[in-house]
Specification:
D-Maltodextrin-Binding Protein, domain 2, Alpha-Beta Plaits, prephenate dehydratase activity, 26% helix, alpha/beta, Preph_deHydtase, six-stranded mixed beta sheet, 291 residues, five-stranded mixed beta sheet
Length: 291
């Protein structure tokens, strides 16, 4: 479980999953530099820290530009009891970290979170390194430091290297230059961003009725009303593989007429529609992608 920093008031604390130096920690520091970060063991503990009043916000990774969705998170979000109030896009630059004095030729295994290893798979294959999965990137760096074995390296952030006293053997080893992770910021209370002051994102989940063309019909309202769907993913939620839940992001506020009409049509063809958050879109969405 998480333990709140003694010197900080809960309203000035933001929780993340992982140990200090994780990319989620970096995202917290980048988006909320005035707040104190709170390390949590699991996503469930991160949500609980906010629900229990130990932290004001939770910073949750949701997808990566090269490795796709973060495992399990879509199942956990609807039951978290929290609301999405913001988003943050964090550029991810992976470093190959090892104990001081180790050389690149000595390294045989590379340790990290499965997402980070996936984002560097071409590098590790080319270099002949054996990947070893860990719960998080900074945790892998911490273990490599504690073991003191020059044959082991970690894929983690430069911040993790600084915290755990590791040296960078190879910088920026991610396979894709624009490697970026999207995070969502969650809180106990929802917000109602202004509709006429920039881009608004609405995130929701829904289940379609078990009839032919149900998904096609449920999404038709977004097309006819000109509402842009920026994300749509499905995942199975029952043991018989017959019930799918969809996770979606759209551009627009539910109170806007065209968005309201699209959501009404969605509700007609769906078993359940649950809005997880309405929040300002990040400035990153309007920037051109480099690389």
């Amino acid at each position: 479980m998480a333990e709140a920093p003694a010197a900080a008031a809960p309203e000035n604390i933001i929780a993340f999953q992982g140990v200090p130096g994780a990319y989620s920690d970096m995202a917290c520091r980048a988006a909320f530099p005035e707040m104190t970060t709170l390390s949590c063991v699991s996503f469930e503990d991160t949500f609980a820290a906010v629900r229990d009043g130990k932290a004001h916000y939770a910073m949750i990774p949701i997808e990566n530009s090269s490795a796709g969705r973060v495992a399990d998170i879509h199942h956990l979000l609807p039951e978290s009891g929290l609301h999405i109030v913001g988003e943050h896009f964090q550029k991810v630059e992976h470093q190959l970290l090892a104990v001081k004095g180790a050389s690149r030729d000595q390294v045989k295994t590379v340790h990290s979170h499965v997402q980070a290893l996936s984002q560097c798979r071409h590098y590790t294959r080319r270099e002949g390194l054996t990947p070893v999965t860990h719960a998080d990137t900074a945790g892998a760096a911490k273990e490599v430091a504690e073991l003191g074995d020059p044959t082991r390296a970690a894929v983690a952030s430069a911040l993790a290297g600084e915290i755990y006293g590791l040296q960078v053997l190879d910088p920026n080893i991610q396979d894709i230059p624009h490697n970026t992770t999207r995070f969502i910021v969650m809180a106990q209370e929802p917000i109602d961003p202004p509709r006429d002051n920039g881009l608004v994102i609405t995130t929701f989940v829904f289940r379609v009725r078990s009839v032919p063309a149900a998904l096609y019909k449920s999404l038709g309202g977004f097309a006819t009303n000109g509402v842009n769907i920026t994300k749509l993913e499905s995942y199975i939620i029952d043991g018989s593989f017959t019930v799918a839940q969809f996770f979606a992001d759209i551009e627009g506020h539910p109170d806007e007429r065209l968005v309201r009409l699209a959501l009404e049509e969605l509700s007609f063809f769906s078993r359940e529609v649950k809005i997880l958050g309405v929040y300002p879109g990040a400035d990153f969405r309007s920037k051109p992608v480099a690389g």
